[in-house]
């Protein structure tokens, strides 16, 4: 496979990091056509078409190297799913993994949107946001604090909505911030308890030493789950969910109970949701009330939440402290058991997501439901869908994609985060792709593209087992 023409060309392929694209396109696309199609996004330092060793024909796989990572990220965002030349299939564009990487996949978008920065200890989260908002829309900012004193450690995270925004921030912000892409620690290296004052995991290494900017990710295994039946009430809660909920949905849900001071969705080393969130309230009463009201609550409908108390680090060894805690808990439990029903509590003014709803939650203006096409209908178009962080259930996908008409069936690939939607009418498929590509349904982001045509039938003898 002739990937790069000479050894010298490979020396700077990962300088700067994430500046090289991996492109899957039609075999007929040439190097010059690739260069012309991607040159609008920045200075291209090299284009390589992967060819078969024997036939020297293109395999439909290419690499495009930019001078800056922000240029590569912007090209990925704009060109993914686009057609380079008329009559060819839409190309798939990803940030290529480092040449030294041992991973067997290319870089996910979610890994490229969060940056780690060094900031003055006087900075508030609002100061941090004001400083970095000029580079793009910010999803959230977090300042890392000492878990004992609550003081800032002069370190923080900024998460953008797009990889290109994070890359522009790293390239253009004041160098004193020493901005880099965040590298979350893996589960195996987490050794400290979670600090409510340090939303992304407390700073490791002791004192003010840097330890390679490495931070642990919180994990349910690091928390001591408390047994409320033996009066172990705390101000911290751990919520578990099987559905893919976003940080915003969890925040809105637990913010119904007054006194919430912290809420964080736990993510793995690749930025994917672990299905757990840590919530802390300013007072014991609010935590007890939230636990009793939301444990077992179905959100979205059909997904039952599990909410437990976890150790919040407070000292409860003194008899007076335990008596006060038990008194507050008893009062709140009485209010829960004798107060209004959960359905009444869950309907504050102006808050609709918790009230009874359809099983599909999205900001897309969906058409009304339409009947499926007959199962024996001829497939005129197939859509290829990539889900992040996990696939939606088939019945939900059918509910969403049938609204554009002529949907034959939904097929999820076992063990993978992808699926196919088969349509009996090409226009209906095009309308579904235009409406749903890049959108979020029930907390799951979908990339919707035209699927490659089915491969030709093999002439090999079929297996007989």
From TrEMBL:
CDD domains: RRM1_RBM45 (cd12366), RRM2_RBM45 (cd12367), RRM3_RBM45 (cd12368), RRM4_RBM45 (cd12369)
Superkingdom in the source lineage: Eukaryota
Pfam families tied to this protein: RRM_1
Keywords: RNA-binding
One example GO MF annotation: RNA binding
The RRM domain, residue ranges: 19-98, 113-187, 230-312, 381-453
Cited SUPFAM superfamilies: RNA-binding domain, RBD
The protein's name: RNA binding motif protein 45
Lineage: Eukaryota, Metazoa, Chordata, Craniata, Vertebrata
């Amino acid at each position: 496979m002739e990937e790069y023409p000479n050894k010298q060309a490979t020396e700077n392929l990962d300088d700067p990091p994430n500046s090289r694209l991996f492109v899957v396109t039609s075999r007929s696309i040439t190097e010059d056509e690739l260069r012309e199609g991607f040159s609008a996004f920045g200075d291209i330092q090299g284009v390589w078409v992967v060819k078969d060793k024997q036939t020297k024909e293109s395999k439909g796989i290419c690499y495009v190297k930019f001078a800056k990572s922000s240029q590569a990220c912007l090209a990925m965002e704009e060109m993914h799913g686009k057609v380079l030349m008329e009559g060819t299939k839409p190309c798939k564009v990803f940030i290529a993994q480092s040449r030294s990487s041992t991973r067997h996949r290319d870089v996910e978008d979610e890994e490229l949107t969060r940056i780690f920065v060094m900031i003055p200890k006087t900075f508030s989260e609002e100061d941090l946001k004001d400083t970095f908002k000029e580079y793009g829309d910010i999803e959230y900012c977090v300042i890392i604090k000492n878990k004992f004193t609550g003081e800032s450690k002069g370190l923080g995270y900024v998460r953008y909505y797009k990889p290109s925004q994070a890359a522009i921030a790293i390239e253009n912000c004041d160098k004193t911030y020493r901005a880099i892409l965040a590298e979350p620690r893996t589960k195996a290296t987490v050794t400290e308890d979670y600090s409510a004052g340090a939303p992304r995991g407390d700073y490791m290494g002791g004192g003010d030493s840097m330890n390679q900017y490495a931070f642990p990710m919180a994990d349910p295994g690091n928390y001591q789950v408390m047994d409320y039946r033996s009066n172990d009430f705390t101000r911290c809660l751990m919520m578990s969910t099987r559905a893919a909920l976003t940080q915003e949905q969890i925040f809105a849900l637990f913010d119904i109970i007054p006194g919430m001071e912290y809420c964080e969705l736990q993510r793995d080393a690749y930025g994917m949701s672990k299905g757990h969130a840590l919530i802390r309230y300013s007072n014991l009463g609010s935590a007890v009330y939230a636990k009793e009201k939301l444990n077992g609550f179905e959100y979205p409908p059909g997904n039952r939440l599990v909410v437990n108390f976890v150790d919040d680090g407070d000292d409860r060894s003194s008899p007076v402290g335990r008596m006060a805690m038990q008194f507050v808990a008893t009062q709140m439990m009485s209010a829960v058991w004798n107060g209004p029903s959960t359905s009444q509590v869950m309907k504050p003014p102006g808050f609709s997501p918790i009230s009874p709803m359809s099983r599909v939650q999205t900001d897309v203006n969906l058409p009304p439901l339409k009947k499926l096409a007959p199962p024996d209908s001829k497939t005129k178009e197939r859509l290829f869908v990539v889900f992040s962080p996990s696939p939606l259930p088939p019945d939900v996908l059918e509910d969403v994609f049938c609204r554009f008409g002529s949907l034959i069936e939904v097929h999820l690939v076992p063990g993978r985060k992808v699926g196919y939607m088969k349509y009996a009418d090409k226009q209906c498929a095009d309308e579904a792709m235009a409406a749903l590509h890049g959108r979020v349904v029930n907390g799951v982001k979908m990339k919707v593209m035209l699927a490659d045509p089915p491969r030709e039938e093999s002439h090999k003898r079929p297996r007989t087992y």
